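Sanity check

After download, print the first record. It should look like this:
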Amino acid sequence: MPKIGIIGGTGVYNPKLLDNVRETIKVTPYGEVKALIGSYKGEEIVFIPRHGAEHSIPPHLINYRANIMALKQLGVKTIIATAAVGSLHFDRKPGEYVLADQFIDFTKMRKNSFFEGGEEGVIHCDMTVPYCPEIRAAIKKAGDERGLKIHNGGTYVCTEGPRFETAAEIEMFKLLGGQVIGMTSVPEVCLAREMGICYANISIITNHAAGISPHILNHTEVVEVMRNSIHDVRYLIMESIKYLSDTRTCDCVEILKETRINEA
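Expected structure tokens:
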């Protein structure tokens, strides 16, 4: 069973990254999920394209619960996710990377918990440190080896999308302590934590946010920066795996004592 899962955009996955790739469909209570499973240097890896195979699912319509539950069913204990983000500060520039350690949630309509009463019960999941420090340390070490500019720590502001934010909203998010802004990390990180799965996010800065950028925002700019960064992103993901320990000392798994969900 694969212990490591990768959640990313369409451009992140390259068939050459993994050996012996096979497709599997997991049926969860929240819907079906198509995943790719292969091996990398002897480690079995499962990959899920967050926006679908053709990048056709906007951020507010992603079935986050199905994706995380599918990874749980497959036995995944560690998730490395990627996200394109805008920077709220000039000292964090396009082409650099942020490993968020906190988030501020401004989503509005998303299903953000597996525990909604009834048979699932009610669980209040700790979110003190939502992004696993052990995975972040492994990614940072891999990035340092390649000479990449990586900020280990920062607050990810998650908005509903799919529109970009107004300049006034960005000013508010800056005052609240945000460093980067995106549309996908929440509720993904929350759901992973409810399942006792270690989760980290590689945020790729593609632009400065509204009111900070000297021009209006457009998705083409985001795609172009992602295209230029994709080889480094793939390197970060795959090379960080060798620094991940089978023995977890973080507290990401503690929730399982309360939920009594088996750790696969």
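If your output differs, re-run the checksum step. Summary of this record's structure: The two ends are 9 Å apart (CA to CA).
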